[in-house]
């Protein structure tokens, strides 16, 4: 399955809602606490805790509110184009990491240079971006409007994944390949068992480490995946089996895990050679943020790069969704301003 067809499938998560119409709904104007404010809300009705029906009834603290629950990729793009034409001040994304990815991907050509401020209402099964931004689970749009009035904002840059065929690049906040694909599949099972957010991430991670440690020399977890990695200014891709490849511009991850080392801005990479060595020792050190030279000698490589190229025989994960592999250009996306508590 190619990226564009998989993307279409992922946006169908917006289907099947009766609480909101497909078209934009104009909420009743209310007194604003922050001056004239035009708000556009994209609600994923299948997100774990979405509040879509509440928005359609009116949003206190905003002068003009447009609410939409798009059912398809085309409808999502049309919704965002309408928001851009109306010159919204605030783009609200009610959903999880996958909803944020879909919105940023569909809107890549609409707000070149000057994006509206963005509010994330964390209502998905995993909300890594919201955790990084310090947004609590119970955060509401009223809370966000009050934070907007106080000028509470931070900047983040998504990871942009592009192919050479000219198809629309994907935008998200956590890119992973190799064992990360298998670990994400395990996380989906924990969701069905009722575990969400950091709990799901922790359970999947623990299971992945155990599978790797006790799977034996021929284990699919240990043998890794063939990857060709080329950094800016490099020559031919460094082709070798790798256990895992991660990239993100987030400063922190759920459960306080620090696979990229010390918190810092910019896009960070973690590349682990296959098979991973001395996991009972290296795994705890890695997740605690160690960047010691001995980790690199064991095949755990921390890198900082604004862009890189990777060739994957297998697929990759971007914010919880699986996409086909191939030759990819991975780079930093635009600077985005997020409203935070």
From TrEMBL:
GO molecular-function terms, A-Z: kinase activity
> Key word Transferase present in the record?
yes
Q: Per its UniProt record, what InterPro entries does this chain match?
A: ATP-NAD_kinase_N, Diacylglycerol_kinase_cat_dom, NAD/diacylglycerol_kinase_sf
User: Which residue intervals define the domain DAGKc in the entry?
Assistant: 89-169
One Pfam match, by short name?
A: DAGK_cat
Keywords, in A-Z order: Kinase, Transferase
Protein name, as recorded: Diacylglycerol kinase family protein
Give the species this sequence originates from.
Answer: Sphingomonas cynarae
């Amino acid at each position: 399955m190619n990226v564009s067809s998989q993307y279409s499938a992922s946006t169908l998560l917006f289907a099947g809602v009766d609480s909101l119409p497909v078209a934009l709904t104009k909420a009743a104007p209310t007194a604003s606490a922050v001056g004239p404010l035009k708000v556009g809300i994209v609600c994923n009705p299948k997100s774990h805790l979405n509040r879509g029906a509440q928005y359609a009834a009116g949003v206190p603290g905003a002068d003009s509110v447009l609410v939409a629950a798009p059912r398809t990729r085309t409808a999502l793009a049309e919704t965002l184009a309408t928001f851009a034409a109306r010159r919204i001040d605030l783009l609200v994304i009610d959903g999880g990491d996958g909803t944020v990815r879909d919105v940023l991907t569909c809107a890549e050509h609409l707000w070149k240079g000057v994006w509206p401020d963005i509010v994330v209402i964390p209502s998905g099964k995993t909300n890594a971006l919201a955790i990084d931004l310090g947004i609590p689970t119970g955060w509401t749009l009223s809370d966000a409007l009050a934070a907007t009035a106080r000028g509470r904002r931070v900047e983040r840059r998504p990871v942009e994944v592009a192919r050479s065929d000219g198809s629309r690049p994907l935008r998200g906040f956590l890119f992973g390949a190799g064992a990360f694909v298998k670990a994400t599949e395990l996380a989906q099972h924990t969701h069905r068992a009722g575990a969400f957010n950091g709990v799901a991430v922790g359970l999947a991670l623990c299971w992945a480490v155990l599978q790797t440690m006790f799977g034996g020399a021929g284990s699919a977890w240990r043998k890794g995946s063939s990857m060709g990695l080329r950094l800016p200014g490099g020559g031919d891709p460094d082709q070798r089996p790798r256990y895992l490849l991660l990239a993100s511009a987030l400063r922190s991850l759920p459960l306080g895990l620090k696979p990229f080392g010390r918190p810092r801005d910019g896009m960070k990479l973690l590349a682990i050679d296959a098979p991973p060595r001395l996991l009972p020792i290296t795994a705890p050190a890695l997740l605690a943020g160690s960047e010691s030279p001995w980790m690199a000698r064991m095949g755990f490589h921390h890198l900082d790069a604004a862009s890189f190229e990777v060739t994957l025989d297998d697929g990759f994960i971007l914010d919880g969704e699986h996409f086909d592999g191939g030759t990819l250009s991975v780079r930093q996306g635009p600077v985005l301003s997020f409203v935070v508590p």
